[in-house]
């Protein structure tokens, strides 16, 4: 199965993005006018509940204009007469907008001052069967987050969140604890899932994990050449961390509160140096 690519309309009014409001079992989500809501859920074999969004509904706590609107979109398509809402850039960055691939394109351009209008491609990475499912552990202790640092040729570095592939028959929660132990030597307790990221055919799930113990000796760890390090959370927005679109959100959530439902993000960024705030 491949991602659906077809035109979708992008509308702005008064500097705000116009989206259709829909609901699923997890709450409100948004769709581009005339677009088809993406499934947003885990791919085959991933398990877990259908994801929610990474923030409150329209206006981040304002009146929900969909209260009298259509019910859950059981057939996965935009309902006739679905109410429309207007979101500022700040609101849109923390909204659940489907499909995630199209949302990434629009938010990137908008944040860079070139908001697209008219038609853009509707790209739904959540509809693609994953080539790999990854589970990652967001571990924060004393104001620092645990990352794996990889040294590059020339002396530069990039960072990843501890984690790895989910094995056959393994739950996401079991995988994240196994990978955390293998890469850092820490044990832990799995908390809420905070993000799902679609990147290059991979479906990635990131959980808050309360970890215990100390990082193990390097010779006992399986990090593929990386090394566990603690990085101040406040430095994440300017740290070359992959996946890039998750880095600043972790810092934001740490300050303001973790999302009630997992963020849904497509991430096509390969250059980790430039900061990303969208």
Indicate the topology.
Layout: E1 5-13, E2 16-24, E3 27-31, E4 84-87, H1 89-93, E5 97-98, H2 100-111, E6 118-123, E7 132-138, E8 140-141, E9 144-151, E10 157-160, E11 163-165, H3 172-184, E12 187-199, E13 202-212, E14 227-232, E15 241-242, H4 244-256, E16 263-266
Parallel strand pairs: 3-5, 7-13, 10-15, 12-16
Antiparallel strand pairs: 1-2, 1-6, 2-3, 2-4, 7-11, 8-9, 9-10, 9-14, 12-13
Features:
alpha+beta, 278 residues
General description of the model:
This protein has 278 residues and is α+β, with helices and mostly antiparallel strands. Helix content is 15%, strand content 34%. The protein contains 4 helices and 16 strands. The strands form 3 sheets. Strands 1, 2, 3, 4, 5 and 6 form a 6-stranded mixed sheet that branches. The protein has a 5-stranded mixed sheet with strand order 11-7-13-12-16. Strands 8, 9, 10, 14 and 15 form a 5-stranded mixed sheet that branches. The longest helix is centred in the middle third of the chain and has 13 residues, at 172-184. The protein is globular, with a radius of gyration of 19 Å. The two termini are 29 Å apart. 40% of the residues are buried.
């Amino acid at each position: 199965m491949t991602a659906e690519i077809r035109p979708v309309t992008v509308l702005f009014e008064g500097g705000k993005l116009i989206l259709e409001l829909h609901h699923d079992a997890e709450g409100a989500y948004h769709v581009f006018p005339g677009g088809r809501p993406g499934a947003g859920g885990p791919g085959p074999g991933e398990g877990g509940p259908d994801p929610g969004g990474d923030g409150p509904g329209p206006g981040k706590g304002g009146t929900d204009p969909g209260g009298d609107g259509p019910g859950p979109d059981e057939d996965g398509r935009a309902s006739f007469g679905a109410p429309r809402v207007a979101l500022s850039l700040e609101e849109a960055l923390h909204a659940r907008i489907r499909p995630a691939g199209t949302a990434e394109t629009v938010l990137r351009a908008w944040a860079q001052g070139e908001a697209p209008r008219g038609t853009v491609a509707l790209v739904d990475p959540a509809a693609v069967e994953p080539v790999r499912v990854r589970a990652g552990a967001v571990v924060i202790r004393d104001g620092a987050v645990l990352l794996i640092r990889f040294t590059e040729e020339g002396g530069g570095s990039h960072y990843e969140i501890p984690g790895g592939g989910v094995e056959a028959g393994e739950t996401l929660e079991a995988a994240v604890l196994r990978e955390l132990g293998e890469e850092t030597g820490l044990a832990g307790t799995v908390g809420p899932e905070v993000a799902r990221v679609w990147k290059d055919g991979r479906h990635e799930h990131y959980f808050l994990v309360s970890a215990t113990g100390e990082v193990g000796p390097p010779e006992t760890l399986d990090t593929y050449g990386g090394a566990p390090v603690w990085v101040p959370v406040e430095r994440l927005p300017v740290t070359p961390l992959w996946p890039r679109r998750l880095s600043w959100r972790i810092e934001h959530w740490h300050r303001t509160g973790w999302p009630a439902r997992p963020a849904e993000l497509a991430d096509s960024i390969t250059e980790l140096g430039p900061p990303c705030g969208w």
